[in-house]
Amino acid sequence: MSKWKFPLFLLIVTGLLTFSVTGGGPVKINWSLLSAGIVGVTIVFLYWGFEQSPASPREIAVIAVLGAVAALGRVSLAALPNIQPVTFLVIISGYVFGARTGFMVGSTAALASNFFLSQGPWTPWQMFAWGLAGACAAYFRAAFPGARKWALALFHFAWGYLFGCIMNIWTWTAFIYPLSWQSFLATWAASLWFDSLHAAGNVLFYLFFGEGVIKILNRIKKKIEVSRLPVQSISTKQP
Predict the structure, then answer these.
(1) Could you read off the pLDDT of 115-151 as tens digits, one per residue?
(2) What domains does the chain contain, in order, with CATH numbers?
(3) What is the secondary structure of 152-199 as a DSSP string?
(4) pTM of whole model > 0.70?
(5) Whether 160 contacts 201, CB under 8 Å
């Protein structure tokens, strides 16, 4: 049952977020503030859940290193319009290590890179969007364990637009009035060019580096799993 907690939590958050950004009914509430609050509380709870999990020091080190590498890639290519390796690295991290690690790598990369690119009210949304990309990669692997190279390339391509959609929700709720599907579509249309560059960049990074990075991360994963065996065998011998 525990393996369903993370996707169930994300599903509930998605429902609440949809409720908030669509107005939620006749009640007069600041839906922009509510949606931002939902994203912020979600990140806090997921970090708290990771803190309570039995993660080994090696797993924490892997998350820190992958988050730092993704952040460095984003900062180094910040001059290019929305072409960045961070989404690719986050997706591969979640694909290899699982949903929890994928979310942590994505959210950590967003937070760390914004220390150089500027923090702001967009930071929690970026943490949520990149974290969600990493988590979804794990569920994509579980649903399609035999997915071929071009299926993963298509997944990377789709997340160029999905990431843009999530960030457009922030732009829409923060700056656009009134909130309606028409105004949201107009907001998304304005960013379509940048989202297309993001999607194309994701695919290129994966096609050129994807298989090599997956092999490296799979070796690291095996070493982490092997390192657990002596501890488990000792604990089973204890009365």
Answers:
(1) 999 998 899 999 999 999 999 999 999 999 888 889 9
(2) 56-224 (1.10.1760.20)
(3) HHHHHHHHHHHHHHHHHHHHHHHH-SS--HHHHHHHHHHTHHHHHHHH
(4) yes
(5) yes
